[in-house]
C-alpha cells in the first residue's frame, strides 16, 4: 500500500513539474475586420474603440484589423 502511494505521488509530482515547465502558448493575432468591409471612417472608429477598451490590435498594409485571439470576446462585446 505504501509503495503504491509513493508511486502515485512520484507520478503526480512528475506531471506537476512537467506542466509548470511548459512554456506558455504565444498569443496569436486573428483577423477581426477585413478591409473589404471597412472604409477609412469605419477603420478610424473601430481602432479608437479598441484603444479605449485597451485591446491590442494591428493593421496590415491592406488595412485589415487584427486583434489578439485572447481578446476576441472582449473586442466583439465592445465593438458590436
Structure write-up:
The chain has 80 residues and is α+β, with helices and mostly antiparallel strands. It contains 3 helices and 3 strands; from the N terminus they run H-E-H-E-E-H. It has helices at residues 2-21, 40-52, 72-79; strands spanning 29-33, 57-59, 65-68. It has a 3-stranded antiparallel sheet with strand order 1-3-2, covered by helices on one side. Strand 2 and strand 3 (65-68) form a beta hairpin. The termini are far apart.
Observed structural traits:
about 80 residues; alpha+beta; 3 helices; 3 strands; about 50% helix; rod-shaped
Strand content: 15-25%
Mean pLDDT: 85
Q: Give the helix/strand class.
A: alpha+beta
Largest sheet: 3 strands, antiparallel
- Largest beta sheet: strand ordering: 1-3-2
User: Which stretches of 5+ consecutive residues score pLDDT under 50?
Assistant: none
Strand segment tally: 3
CA distance, first residue to last residue:
59 Å
| Residue share in helix | 40-55%
Which shape, going by the Cα principal axes? rod-shaped
- Give the SSE string: HEHEEH
Number of helices: 3
